[in-house]
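A brief tutorial aside. Many learners find it easier to grasp structure tokens once they have seen a single protein encoded end to end. The record that follows does exactly this for Pyruvate/ketoisovalerate oxidoreductase, gamma subunit. Read the sequence first, then the structure, and try to relate runs of similar tokens to stretches of the chain.
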Amino acid sequence: MPEKYFEIRWHARAGQGAKSASQFLTEAAEEAGKYSSSFPEYGAERSGAPMKAFNRVADVPIRLKSNIETPDVVVVIDDTLLKNSEVTSGLAEDKLLLVNTSRSIEEVRKLSGYKGRIGVIPATEIALEEIKRGIPNTVMIGALIRATDVVPLDAVKEKIKAAFSKKFSDEVVRANIRALERGYQEVKLSE
């Protein structure tokens, strides 16, 4: 029987931080003692073009290297992508669609046609308030952790401190931790 991996597919536009969020989550998972992989997939390589990133997280070594067709979670960083049926392709109704949006769960359900569990968080707004930049990936990681417990929140906080303190001021580090915590606390989940 094949090993079961926890699989995440990210949908965004190039330049919105999905690749970085995916890589960051993998590094935090590994530091928390799990096995993890991360890789992007680009269409046209230009800023603003739709792209995907993928994560696998497991308690055993990950041997599978293919794209993720039946994810446990789909994370959507740009809600204008919700009308694209590819976003929810392969996402079973007992799984999670997590969206960066100021729209309600009901609006996301109508736009996407997805009947399963939905999470919404205005991640770009939170990022602008906390980090002063419209890059929502840290907020989305917080929301993802709250919805799934894929990695411990403290492991991500430690990863932020270790990675960001080398390049940024203490205030930037604190702002990113606040953004992560707000994503964790403020995500709204259906059911």
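Self-check: Residues 170-186 form the longest helix (17 residues). If you spotted this yourself, you are ready for the next section.
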